[in-house]
Specification:
319 residues, Tetracycline Repressor, domain 2
Length: 319
Amino acid sequence: MTSNRKSQPAKFNKVADAPASNWVDDWAPVRLQPYLRLARLDRPIGTWLLLWPCLWSLALADLSEARILPNFWYILLFILGAIVMRGAGCVYNDLADQDFDGRVDRTRFRPIPSGQVTVKQAKLFMVVLALVGLTVLVQFNGFTIILGIVSLAIVAIYPFMKRITYWPQIFLGFAFSWGALMGWSAVKSTVDLAAVILYAACIFWTIGYDTIYAHQDKDDDALLGLKSTALKFGESTKSWLTLFYVLALTGIWLAAKLAGGGLIFNFALMLAGLQMLWQIRTLDIDDSTNCLLRFRSNRDFGLIIFSGIALEMLFQARF
């Protein structure tokens, strides 16, 4: 089996934050590659970061109901929903940023600024993704459907925040953490204190990891007049990360405690805290590769938390 990578001009494969080897560039049909890149399917880390709050919340809600394992059907729905809605959000973000992306090294070969996909094609693709997301959403109860629709307002304003505030990461946190409410409501048909605390914790987590990510673009952002917490924090970034990560860990711990979490989960949370400590201690804000690797490592942080909840459920069911 041969790769499709050589079928397109080499420059179209140079997406700075995509893994050097990924299934989209190597194996996807050539005609679909620009659309798959537009939906960031060559860079799945964003899907993981959107998905984890959903699965944490779902698992905590099931833990509070003394279930043995998280609802597998809901897990599948959240996975599909995260893939398509992250994709739709990325298309919307690229449409909003098309005048900037072509002037930034990391983004100038994205499908819209490089001319691989027209604005009209991108809009149509976004609608298709959104319709798939709607099909997923209506599988849940009415309250969760309403929550999902409300989240669109936050998604709509996020791309414009970096033009007016040094804290766009807060608005990304509002959007990317919304699953912390929806996972809980999928089980409970309501939002309780544990879910609200988890939502706040996920916002702090998002501010932290996206600040690391934003350090890749800080020079270009400064030249273009765009703002970010990376520019705001500067050399104090590690101190701010410590604050936000401690708040995130505290909130996750409290939410789990309210849901019935015990020693098994607390041990997992300790491991997750060590992973965060590694991020902070080894971070080099002036090395883009270093920043990207630490940003991506938050997938592992999310897995540790989810595994801790699942193991806690099994332990409590057995003993």
